[in-house]
Design brief:
Helix content is 68%, strand content 1%. It is mainly alpha-helical.
């Protein structure tokens, strides 16, 4: 009798739940209460023409950041006898890295790895972009567009390194180093932070557009290269003022504009997140120009164009990891802090340790990148990027950010040193003293920048 009653009860429960689920969507599930959620079929990703158009534009303007942006910015900061050499290094490196990226770099950075190394490096399933096809998608955009967008990041990151040992690094050695560094350093760090199953991504490190992957990574390598190559002849005694500040301003302005593709493009959509990243980028950059200039003005008595331009780059660097995670208030603080910290980085810090970082990649990109990465852990808002920082009570995010910063510094520093040491033991790193005195333009490339050009 009890068995019959139990069976009848179970049958009635099932009938009731079926009746509830048959009600209009939402109401039936609400009334059913304990009924397990029904499996929802995940819609297949579809091409979004708006997102695709935005990512095509972003790719173009990020490429513009290197050529001509960074090339002009770096070139103008050097003495006139070395300007063409820097332009050549930036231009040739763009082509070299692009080829390496399509052949194997993209695959190592953005495909799933296997075995014990899966968290640190990807696989070879996308060698020569195999499998992307004409209609293959990455989210709502063609995978070829995603690969091209990431290619522009892979280009500018190694090229930034050239600012550290500028004025005395051999062209051949520089290109060999950048090619090896792309595969051995950039691709692993990019995979760890952004790739599927990446070690730092799984740890929860926040890096929206490259604070660790691009700026800290390249700055560490640039500093190591500057120290290993040694100081420029006459450093600290001879006048090494920039040869063309107008060129530098033009390059910096192109960087500022291109950085919208760099940061807002990293949303990978043309929606609200891209808009937030864009306004944060512009605000932080503007704030850094103000803070750097005002500090310099108060300490030296005059505001300089070089200082204002350097402040802009500092702000761009610092907001990069944070732009899609913080609100405008956080962006404002990050920009103001970047101008002050990076000013000290290229004056006080550099003076304390007396290294010859020719174009201050460590003072601006290194310290600015670290500052931005850590302040992301402070000002991240759940309502913006889906993650909370210390300002919302998640102080643990600061430890996670520190893990990302520390891992990048150690890995990039050690591997960069090994690569540079091997090159030095084989083909040498530095030009001869005679070539350095004559200038790299004529000694390395047989060309001279005409006066008035």
């Amino acid at each position: 009798m009890w068995n019959k009653m139990r069976k009848m009860t179970v049958k009635m429960n099932v009938m009731c739940k079926r009746s509830l689920l048959a009600l209009p969507a939402g109401l039936g599930l609400l009334l059913a209460g304990s009924v397990p959620a029904m499996a929802q079929a995940t819609p297949a990703p579809t091409l979004n023409s708006g997102d695709t158009a935005w990512m095509l534009i972003s790719s173009v303007i990020v490429l513009m950041m290197t050529i001509p942006g960074l090339a002009l910015y770096y070139g103008g900061l050097l003495r006139r006898k070395n300007i063409l050499a820097m332009l050549m290094q930036c231009f040739f490196a763009t082509a070299l890295i692009s080829v390496l990226w399509v052949i194997v770099g993209y695959s190592l950075a953005f495909t799933a790895g296997s075995g014990a190394t899966a968290g640190f490096i990807g696989g070879f399933s996308r060698v020569l972009l195999n499998g992307t096809g004409l209609n293959g998608l990455s989210g709502t955009i063609p995978e070829t567009v995603f690969a091209m967008f990431q290619c522009t990041f892979a280009i500018i990151t190694p090229v930034l390194i050239l600012g550290g040992p500028a004025d005395r690094l051999k062209f051949s050695s520089a290109m060999v180093f950048l090619g090896i560094w792309l595969i051995a350093v950039y691709c692993p760090i990019a995979h760890m932070v952004w790739g599927p199953g990446g070690f730092l991504a799984n740890a929860g490190v926040l890096d929206f557009a490259g604070g660790t992957v691009v700026h800290i990574n390249s700055a560490v390598a640039g500093l190591v290269a500057a120290v290993m190559v040694g100081k420029r002849k006459g450093y600290g005694r001879e006048n090494m003022a920039p040869g063309d500040l107008g060129m530098t301003l033009t390059g910096a302005a192109l960087l500022w504009v291109g950085w919208f593709g760099f940061n807002a493009g990293s949303a990978l959509t043309s929606g609200g997140l891209a808009g937030m990243a864009m306004i944060n980028t512009h605000l932080a950059t503007s704030a850094a120009v103000l803070s750097w200039t005002l500090v310099e003005w108060s300490l030296k008595g005059k505001p300089s164009l070089l200082g204002a331009v350097s402040g802009a780059v500092a702000g761009l660097v610092a907001i990069t990891p944070a732009c899609g995670f913080v609100g405008v208030g956080g962006a404002l603080v990050i920009g103001l802090a970047a101008g002050v910290v990076c000013y000290w980085g290229v004056t006080g810090f550099k003076g304390m340790f007396k290294y010859d970082d020719a174009l201050d990649i460590w003072g601006v990109h290194g310290l600015g990148g670290i500052l931005g990465a850590m302040l992301t852990g402070v000002f991240a808002l759940n309502a913006v990027g889906g993650h909370s920082g210390a300002i919302e009570g998640n102080f643990h995010q600061l430890l996670i950010q520190a893990e990302g910063v520390g891992t990048t510094i150690i890995y990039s520093g050690v591997v960069s040193y090994v690569i540079l040491k091997l090159i030095d033991l084989t083909i040498g790193l530095r030009v001869s003293e005679e070539d350095e005195m004559e200038g790299l333009d004529i000694a390395q490339h047989g060309e001279v920048l005409q006066h008035g050009a």
